[in-house]
Amino acid sequence: MVKVGRSGQILGAVVMLTCIARTDAAALPLATNGASDYSIVTPDAPTAQEQFAAAELQKYLGLISGAELTVRTESKATGRKIIVAVSPRAKRASKIRFAKADADSDAFAIETDGGDLLLIGSNKRAVIYAVYTLLEKHLGCRWLNFGEHVRPGSGFIEELIPKKPMIELPELRERHKASLKIRGFICAAWFGNTPMQIVDWAMKQKLNYFLIPVAQYESAEDWRKAIVEEGMLPRGFILAVGHHSFHYFLPPEKHFKEHPEWFALVGGKRQPGGRRGGQFCLSNPQAAKTYRENVLAYIARHPEVDVFALYPNDGYGWCECENCKTGVPWEERRKYEATQDIYLKLINPIVAEVKTRFPDKRVSVAAYVNYTQPPQKERPAPGLDVTYAFFTRNWFTDPIGNATGPLAKRPYAFDIARKHLARWVELTKDGGGDVIMYEYYTGRSAWRGRPYPLMHLIPQELAYFQRIGLAGCAVQAHWNARKYAAANLYVFARAAWDTKLDVDATLTDYYPHRYGKAAPAMAKHFAQMEENARHLQKYFVRGAEAIARRDKGLADCQRFLDEAKGLASTGRAKQLTAEEQTLFDAYRKFQLAKQAKRSDA
Q1: The whole model's pTM is what?
Q2: Is 591 within a domain?
């Protein structure tokens, strides 16, 4: 395999060894000329995930080889077998054991045993990961994007399935587990309902978490049935529901007229607030009681949900009454008060009651804007999870863990966030709570919808999150991200599974599968785009040197893109390079307009 560096140049040969694979034994002939002696075997009372894993293996082995393998339960199976099970639910899988820590990391095994093949998971979804890893690593399948169909019958996502008249496997002894416990997507309501393509692709990339806003979750029963009940749950995803939701559990349209004192006093006047800003009066005992009762009733109605994300409404608008005021300045923007203490006073009693009444459920709070700052006096209840959203960072410039980059001298951008994260980990670890990062790798606000390649930044950040004790990372993502952030999301998924990911080797495999003969030119285009986007700050200042550097970078991007369009030899490659041209035009227009605005100021 050749390796493409960030400059787009070929760096040399790379040999990737990610497991132990013996090839000195006789090969396992899974299929030959459209026929197979194997059956796919599940436990006698298979779970929904074991059934799904077996069906997916049957489907893709058929697409690859033309062979139609039968799915049987263990007590009815004879002959050669591919065992698909969670350990130790199948007798043949009982010798493969996993520690609890391995189950938390979605560990799985791929092993040959005599003439049989074992695909064994440590938990309900890990068995599905075992199937997809076999198909990708050993049989050449690729699931590149949750995009349009590549060919008829290709399913919901952009996938490439090789045709092989013969499928043989060497003797295998593989164990795999994730670097990060939580890996997934936040599908915010303003992005529209999450389509099945995202769910399908996320599982194939070994992601495991979806956060859905409660208003979206409740507003579309048909969507919930099709996507959640028939998509997420059979795949074993961790399902979180909530997001910005004070307004949902204490709706101002229902209560404000009768109880204005329940809502925030802002500028001397009670404000009803709502999803886009304005909270309620957290110190009002009746308001807090009603909120708590509504949350607990919701949890009781939704046993399918794993995590209840009880976040304040978006923005600020916190109550300024004497009982709510904290007197503690927010470090990052001192005109606001830090509000995490009074927020935790509201949520902690709910966590305690959930632990008693619904012991298999979890509660998560947000650390966002003026409540990123850890509490001064209140402590998180045991088992409370924290989702940290570093909204004010210059996310495209430096990794959070980088103390020497261009913005290192701006402490609000990095030093305070690092201090906050360390403190949150310290506050939650003894109680068993998880801290995860809420990230914006598909863009944010004005940047959403424009290409900002961050492929080398993302693994650096995920490795830093793992190093300091975070449980994982979830990315705000939606349907249109399949076009302008495809490579970011692909690298994110793979680096979340393995934070030691070799980005250049990954892209060297990714670009040819997506762009065919245009891959070398597209590699150079994206390398220059990444360099350009990662240092936008220097292009937003006055000065001939900075402007010249900007113009050269943009010209190089266009030159490489022109080369790629000329090399594209298939309809799909032509479509993708044309889409990249449209995205680059929008990116260039935005950057030049930003510079013009600065120059006129």
Answers
A1: 0.92
A2: yes
Return the CATH number at 468.
3.40.1280
Q: How far apart are CA 364 and CA 209, in angstroms?
A: 13
Cis ω for the linkage preceding 29 (within 30 of 0): no
> Are the CB atoms for 518 and 568 separated by under 8 Å?
yes
Instruction: Say how far apart CA 129 and CA 469 lie, in whole Å.
Output: 24
Mean pLDDT per 10-residue run, the chain (601 residues)? 42 34 64 97 97 98 97 96 95 86 96 95 98 98 79 65 96 97 83 78 97 89 88 97 96 96 96 84 98 98 98 94 93 86 98 98 96 96 96 72 60 78 96 96 72 92 97 90 92 98 98 96 95 62 73 93 97 94 90 62 43
Which residues pair with residue 363 across a beta bridge? 308
Q: Say how far residue 500 (Cα) sits from the centre of its chain.
A: 17
Q: In this structure, what token pair is assigned to residue 260?
A: 């204005």
Separation of alpha carbons 339 and 281, rounded Å: 12
For 147-203, what is the HEC assignment?
CCCCCCCCCCCEEECCCCCEEEECEEEEEECCCCCEEEEECCHHHCCCCHHHHHHHH
In a domain, 35, yes or no: yes
The verdict on residue 3 lying in a domain is no
Rounded distance, CA 234 to CA 427, Å?
34
> Do 168 and 28 lie in a common domain?
yes
Asked which of 176, 194, 212 is the last residue of a domain, the reply is 176
CATH at residue 164: 3.30.379.10
Q: Indicate whether 249 and 372 sit together in one domain.
A: yes
Query: Is 506 within a domain?
Result: no
One-character DSSP codes across 25-87 = SPPEEEEETTB-SEEEEE-SS--HHHHHHHHHHHHHHHHHH---PPEEEGGG--SEEEEEEET
